[in-house]
What we know:
The complex is a heterodimer. Helix content of chain A is 48%, strand content 14%. Chain A is of the alpha/beta class. Chain A folds into two domains: 123 residues, D-Maltodextrin-Binding Protein, domain 2; 159 residues, 3-Layer(aba) Sandwich (D-Maltodextrin-Binding Protein, domain 2), CATH 3.40.190.10. Chain A starts with a helix and ends with a helix. The radius of gyration of chain B is 22 Å and the shape is globular. Chain B is mainly alpha-helical. Chain B has two domains: 59 residues; 231 residues, MetI-like fold (Orthogonal Bundle), CATH 1.10.3720. Chains A and B meet through helix 3 and helix 16 of A and helix 6 and helix 12 of B.
Amino acid sequence: xxxxxxxxxxxxxxxxxxxxxxxxxxxxxxxxxxxxxxxxxxxxxxxxxxxxxxxxxxxxxxxxxxxxxxxxxxxxxxxxxxxxxxxxxxxxxxxxxxxxxxxxxxxxxxxxxxxxxxxxxxxxxxxxxxxxxxxxxxxxxxxxxxxxxxxxxxxxxxxxxxxxxxxxxxxxxxxxxxxxxxxxxxxxxxxxxxxxxxxxxxxxxxxxxxxxxxxxxxxxxxxxxxxxxxxxxxxxxxxxxxxxxxxxxxxxxxxxxxxxxxxxxxxxxxxxxxxxxxxxxxxxxxxxxxxxxxxxxxxxxxxxxxxxxxxxxxxxxxxxxxxxxxxxxxxxxxxxxxxxx
Amino acid sequence: xxxxxxxxxxxxxxxxxxxxxxxxxxxxxxxxxxxxxxxxxxxxxxxxxxxxxxxxxxxxxxxxxxxxxxxxxxxxxxxxxxxxxxxxxxxxxxxxxxxxxxxxxxxxxxxxxxxxxxxxxxxxxxxxxxxxxxxxxxxxxxxxxxxxxxxxxxxxxxxxxxxxxxxxxxxxxxxxxxxxxxxxxxxxxxxxxxxxxxxxxxxxxxxxxxxxxxxxxxxxxxxxxxxxxxxxxxxxxxxxxxxxxxxxxxxxxxxxxxxxxxxxxxxxxxxxxxxxxxxxxxxxxxxxxxxxxx
Lengths: 341, 294
């Protein structure tokens, strides 16, 4: 026991004094902590195994990647409060922005470090309807019909729900030549049709599938595909609207912590690996859309084509979208109090 | 969060009240200083420090910011709902918890041990599991919800559903507070009351209830304290509609989601003060009841 402790101390000492000795210590096992959000548990389990093999082949070093999952915001707060993540892979850029701003463990321009807004794989917002689509829901405007009940989580507590909201807002803007007033009215009428605002995305899925409440569930496409696969393809259909948002769950090296752990190199390699063909293939298997034209051409064929806008294009980035729409007294709060009257 | 504080504060009082270590007289019990020191240190580390951090965080908002955060219409609606549903749950538990405790102590029947163990299940069950199970039962297509739905009564996703969940998690507090007192209550007292010509109702109201009252009030206060901070089981059944079925703990979560730590702690402080006020009044009632019984 004591000898073990000595060795551990010695190893720690070496790691601290000589970070350049990474090669010499190549035989030592290295551990990464990937702090991620909820729906990526299975995805990263597969990717981590593949990366560990790849890293072993490349450097001869064993790498163990620990996973932590939870709501995107809660995970970000944990990292801000000191959870020692080497990499963060969260549901929306806003949460990583907050880590940069409050935790100061990664630079403000973190999103420029990797291709496609640091988003190795993406998704979009789709509709899940009951089998045969009895209410004939085809597009966003069908969600406003009086005979349609819509299930979506509360955007104040759920990061996923904010993507749903922004997708609807973007559609309304496009339909109404960019009129904000019209978009506001659209959102207000949409939320009038929402009988339950679950705290998280999985809660909404349960409300729709287990409780049988609602005609349409607004969800991430990957979650929708997973849910229908697990709960029975004979029960639900997935509808892709005429236009939707590019849902980008970004990734970043939590630089200060990785430097402290001496894991910067392997952490970077891990995130870069997410862009390789083998990782993209795994992501596609877990229903995430590959990003980048080349990967999309190779692995994206099973996904229906849909014109997508981005948060940057329509809302000027997440920080702005969050402040305008979801902060206290923001558009959602205003619209919600109106839609309830 | 408030649960340990109420239980332990009364304990501290009793230590302080009777402690000979305080006066100049010699101590009857050995190790009073040590145990008192331990108790105080324990309370400071586990209760006082975390709670005071709450106040420190809130202080950063300043008065105006604090006042705005705690008096926003949504916040007011949330306190009303949280406090109201918790009081309803505590009252319901007061009646039915007493009944359960009565049956468990006074009657011997097959499956009594199982029924007794079931009471603790509400303690042991992860609240999220309780929430999901209750929602399944009480939603419009659930086993119980379906019975009420045709009459236009919706339980899940309404304040009623919230009260149901809070009643569920609070029940063991009342049962476990009342049970030991009931067990030690000599039957002879009841028999004596009967010989003196009291009918059953009079015996219950004039003899048994006063003896039980302190324990009953304590149990109901615990049930209330537990309910007011409850998040896990409620978020599933409440539906979280802002201004209508949004409980105060959810409001705290939604503020945290915006990284508004100050606003979140402000709501927490407001809730804490409200609960403290209600618990102190319950404590006074309890003390009066105890004096009355004695």
